[in-house]
Amino acid sequence: MSKNKKEIIDNEDGTMADFLKNALQDNRGQVSIATGYFNVEGYADLRDPLREAAKKNDFYLRLLIGNEAVVRKDAALQCEAEAEGSLPEELEGLSINDSYASLMGDLVQFLKQEKVELRQNPERFSHAKCYIFEDLAVVGSSNFTRPGLQKNIELNAALYQPSAQKLVEQCLKEGGPRELTSSRRS
C-alpha cells in the first residue's frame, strides 16, 4: 500500500473500485472477499487487476457470496428485503451482445481457476461485505457490484491493524459474524 493510507472509502473521494485495484496490485498472496451481492458489472470493474493478480504464483482468491434472497409474496409482512441487484435478475434483464457474452465467458473462466474458491452459504443469506488482503482488511457497505464499487454512496473502513485483520479473516473462515460474536463471549 502507498504511504498515504486511505481510511474511509465512500465512492465520493475515490471509489472502492479504484481502492481495490491498488490493493490487488500491491497484494501478494491470498485475497478473501465476502459480499452479499455479486454481479457481472462489478467483475468487469476489477477484471484486469484480478487477472493480473491471478498470474502471481502465490495468489489465491476466496469469494463468499450471499445466497440469493428469495422474495416471497408476504415479504412486506415479514420485513424481508428484496434482492435488488441480484445476479439472476441482472442476467434476466439483459440483452446479450457479443461484448457482454465475452465478459460472461471471461468471468466463468476466471472462477474455474484452481486459484479461485467460490463459496455460498446454502442455509442463510450472507450480507457481509469485506475485502481482506495480506496487510489490509476493508469492512463496510460496498457489495461486489458496479453500484457498490463506484456509484452508490458507501461507507467502508480500511483496517491496517494486524489484530483487526485477523478478526475479519476469522469471521470469514468461520462462516459469518455470528461466529465472531460468539467467540468474543467465551
Please describe what this structure looks like.
It contains 8 helices and 7 strands; from the N terminus they run E-H-E-H-E-H-H-H-E-E-E-H-E-H-H. The model is unreliable at about 70-85 and about 175-185 (pLDDT under 50). The chain is of the alpha/beta class. It has a 7-stranded mixed β-sheet, sandwiched between helices.
List keywords for this structure.
single chain, 186 residues, alpha/beta, Endonuclease, Chain A, seven-stranded mixed beta sheet, globular, disordered C terminus
Summed up:
The chain has helices spanning 16-26, 40-54, 75-78, 87-92, 98-112, 146-151, 162-173, 177-185, and strands at 8-9, 30-35, 60-65, 116-120, 130-133, 136-140, 156-159. It has eight helices and seven strands; from the N terminus they run βαβαβαααβββαβαα.
